[in-house]
């Protein structure tokens, strides 16, 4: 995405390389990458991952951000690499991956499509952030092809067959990256969110709806949701999002004590979803029922420890308006009301060769915008094994 411009208020982190150089840590500024190792001389930025830096904790994150901002304003940046000349890599090593189901609108829309005879939300949905554990090894950086997965398909009452999914979908999400870990047996309260979460990435949760439908009862998503998850190469630090903080929707009933935090962590982030360069939806993250702080508290309430590099998805960002929905399951009502692309072809679900791109931005100081870059993946077909 060579036209991307990052303001000094954003300064998102990345891992990049140029030519035959080894990957190292950088930060986005304008249309360039700041080479942090050559700017600061700190060996922690010479490696191919943000993990070592993130593990230093929030005080180190803040000091580095202040130092970087001072260097930018003082014209003391040692080396700038044009983004167009850089190769952007996955910015951190993923320790664990979990994904949530935290949009009231998405949960309602999905229930209407998947359970038309009983579209009510399950009793637990308004009591806790509902989620599932994914596979860290399937998290890939933007630009990585997405292979159409195979699995057991069982239309109607027929015996299942092993075949490529016929209902490949995306879900537009944000991902929250844990920097500072926690000790086993010590839950992380919602109010400690900023002490542990380093930053935010764009996240595409690829979903094989027909595989998911057959396998998910009684234990929930498995192979239909664990073949690929695409993240953006830019990690927007939480410190850049202060102007984006808003109150989330009113929660009824009031959550249990461990899920309460003050001030709350709703975020005003605008997302845009495109298929083959045509915008099909503009979801708004501010509508999310459960916040990222509440999700983190629920992840650890049983005493499970956080590790540097843990990633958790927000869940699909959606709306009751078709042009703000975050998945084709909702936009096309399960394929029954297809969208039409500029070439005249229709889509109920994704076809081989389709490219899905998710971008986003948030308000920054003085009317500026905090850009998130983009997460993108092209669907590549394959035959059954």
How does this structure look, described?
The protein has 385 residues and is an alpha+beta fold. It starts with 12 loop residues before the first strand and ends in a 5-residue tail after the last strand. It has helices at 36-40, 51-54, 58-73, 104-114, 193-196, 209-215, 292-300, 328-331, and strands spanning 13-17, 24-29, 32-35, 80-82, 87-89, 97-100, 131-133, 139-141, 146-147, 150-153, 161-164, 168-169, 172-178, 197-205, 207-208, 229-231, 236-237, 245-246, 266-267, 270-275, 278-281, 311-313, 339-340, 346-347, 355-363, 369-380. It contains eight helices and 26 strands. A hairpin with a 2-residue loop joins β20 and β21. The relative contact order is 0.19. The radius of gyration is 21 Å and the shape is globular. The mean pLDDT is 95. The chain folds into two domains: 13-89, Fumarylacetoacetase, N-terminal domain (SH3 type barrels); 97-380, Fumarylacetoacetate hydrolase, domain 2, CATH 3.90.850. The strands form seven sheets. Strands 6, 7, 8, 13, 14, 16, 17 and 22 form an eight-stranded mixed sheet that branches.
């Amino acid at each position: 995405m060579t036209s991307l411009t990052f303001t000094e208020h954003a300064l998102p982190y990345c891992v990049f390389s140029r030519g035959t150089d080894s990957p190292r840590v950088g930060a986005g500024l304008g249309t360039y990458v700041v080479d942090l190792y050559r700017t600061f001389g700190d060996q922690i930025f010479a490696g191919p991952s943000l993990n070592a830096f993130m593990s230093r904790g929030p005080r180190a994150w803040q000091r580095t951000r202040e130092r970087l901002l001072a260097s930018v304003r003082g014209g003391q940046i040692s080396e700038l690499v044009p983004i167009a000349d850089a190769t952007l890599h996955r910015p951190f090593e993923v320790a664990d991956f979990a994904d949530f189901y935290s949009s009231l609108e998405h949960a309602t829309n999905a229930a209407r499509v998947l359970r038309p005879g009983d579209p009510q939300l399950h009793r637990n949905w308004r009591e806790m952030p509902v989620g599932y554990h994914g596979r860290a090894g399937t998290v890939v950086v933007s630009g990585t092809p997405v292979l159409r997965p195979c699995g057991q398909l069982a239309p109607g009452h027929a015996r299942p067959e092993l075949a490529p999914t016929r209902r490949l979908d995306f879900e537009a999400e944000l991902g929250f990256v844990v920097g500072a870990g926690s000790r086993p047996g010590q839950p992380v309260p919602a109010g400690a969110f900023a002490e542990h979460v380093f930053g935010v990435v764009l996240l595409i949760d690829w979903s094989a709806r027909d595989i998911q439908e057959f396998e998910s009862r009684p234990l929930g998503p498995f192979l239909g949701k664990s073949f690929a998850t695409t993240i953006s190469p830019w990690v927007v630090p939480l410190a850049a999002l202060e102007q984006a903080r808003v109150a989330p929707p009113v929660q009824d009933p009031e959550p249990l004590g461990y899920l309460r935090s003050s001030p709350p962590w709703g975020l005003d982030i605008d997302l845009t979803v495109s298929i083959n360069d045509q915008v099909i939806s503009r979801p708004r993250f501010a509508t999310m029922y459960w916040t990222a702080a509440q999700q983190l508290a629920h992840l650890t309430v049983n005493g499970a420890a956080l590790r540097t590099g843990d990633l958790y998805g927000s869940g699909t960002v959606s709306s009751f308006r078709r042009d703000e929905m975050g998945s084709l399951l909702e936009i096309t009502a399960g394929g029954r009301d297809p969208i039409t692309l500029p070439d005249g072809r229709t889509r109920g679900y994704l076809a081989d060769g389709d490219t899905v791109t998710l971008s986003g931005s948030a308000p920054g100081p003085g009317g500026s915008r905090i850009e998130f870059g983009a997460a993108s993946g092209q669907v590549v077909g394959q035959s059954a094994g």
